[in-house]
Write a structure and sequence with these properties.
binds fe (ii) ion
Length: 325
């Protein structure tokens, strides 16, 4: 615990003006660490080119030979998972607006990170769309109409604080890494798998940046950070939640083992929570202790729900993969 952190009792929270002042102070205090993590990211991130991943030899003109439903090699859940993956990546303008609003302060490391992150994310929709279009694995009219609907609707996950925003993106980047990686494996297509391995490597580095900057915030404001992390775990929703028929599609994706409650709890929430040593932190204020109890209860409930889901699946004969993480 550092001297500047104010302690809160359960049920007590800072008012809006105080919360804003805490955010500004925190972003300023974290800026040197953001700079260090940005430099580390720039050293390890590999440059890559979407065009090198696309089998252009398979391409045919759509005006001469329109898309028909018998053309895709990917079918069923594999197709659905690619559609959700692409539409999620397509919504980058909304994510950029939110990330810029939360962290894009000043003219130093934070804004550099926001720019770099946005540019890297842009590649994901490019490579996915090119792959799906050239291979005819999804109706190109459907994905373009989906993109239009998705972008016009936008995406809102305005976090009430910097700490909550950082917690969300840390979990979300890892969730996306695993969903993409498992989508590639499920597809049974070496080209698709290679693309998804490449995207997943980006998402992993994004997760590592956010995880570690929030790790630094935990040193500065441990109680506030724990409260924010718990609130985000309890409220977590995938960024694709606004896609039409998302619930039905997400259920198919879960049944296929691409992203289900077990993956969410054991491969997304737990590794990051353990990395932050959330369960071992000492000296937290009353409100953070109370939040941590709710977190433990929530993780137990998720475990029970995941077991029930797995038991129900035994009876069905949906093809399923074991997550590669
Ligand atoms: Fe991405
Ligand atoms: Fe990412």
């Amino acid at each position: 615990m550092t001297a500047q952190e104010r302690r809160f009792e359960p049920g007590e929270a800072p008012d809006a003006a105080e919360a804003l002042a805490m955010d500004e102070a925190l972003l300023t205090e974290l800026e040197p660490e953001a700079g260090r993590l940005y430099d580390r990211h720039a050293r390890v991130a590999q440059e890559w080119f979407p065009h090198e991943f696309i089998p252009y030899r398979l391409g045919r003109d759509f005006d001469k030979e329109p898309w028909t439903p018998d053309q895709p090699r990917l079918t069923g859940v594999a197709q659905t998972a690619f559609e959700i993956g692409l539409l999620t990546e397509d919504n980058l303008p909304s994510y950029h607006r939110l990330i810029h609003g939360m962290f894009g302060k000043g003219d130093g490391a934070w804004i550099n990170w926001v720019g770099r992150w946005t540019a890297e994310e842009g590649r994901h929709a490019i490579v996915l769309r090119d792959y799906l279009t050239v291979t005819r694995n999804i109706d190109p009219i459907l994905i373009e109409r989906g993109r239009m609907a998705q972008l016009q609707q936008g995406y809102d996950h305005d976090s009430p604080s910097t700490l909550r925003g950082l917690a969300y993106v840390a979990f979300q980047e890892l969730a996306t890494r695993i969903a993409h990686r498992n989508t590639g494996r499920y597809s049974n297509d070496p080209v698709a798998d290679k693309i998804m391995v490449r995207i997943a490597a980006d998402e992993n580095l994004h997760m590592v940046f956010y995880r570690d900057i929030l790790g630094a915030a935990l040193q500065i404001q441990p109680s506030a950070a724990v409260r924010a992390i718990v609130e985000e775990v309890l409220a977590f929703e995938m960024p694709g939640a606004g896609i039409p028929n998302f619930v039905r599609k997400a259920t198919q994706i879960a049944k296929a083992g691409i992203y289900d409650l077990r993956v969410h709890r054991d491969e997304v929430l737990m590794p990051i929570l353990k990395h932050w040593r959330i369960f071992e932190l000492e000296g937290l204020d009353g409100a953070a202790e109370e939040a941590r109890k709710r977190l433990v209860e929530h993780l137990e409930k998720l475990d029970v729900a995941a077991k029930k889901f797995e038991e129900r699946l035994v009876a069905s004969n949906v093809p399923r993969i074991a997550s590669a993480g």
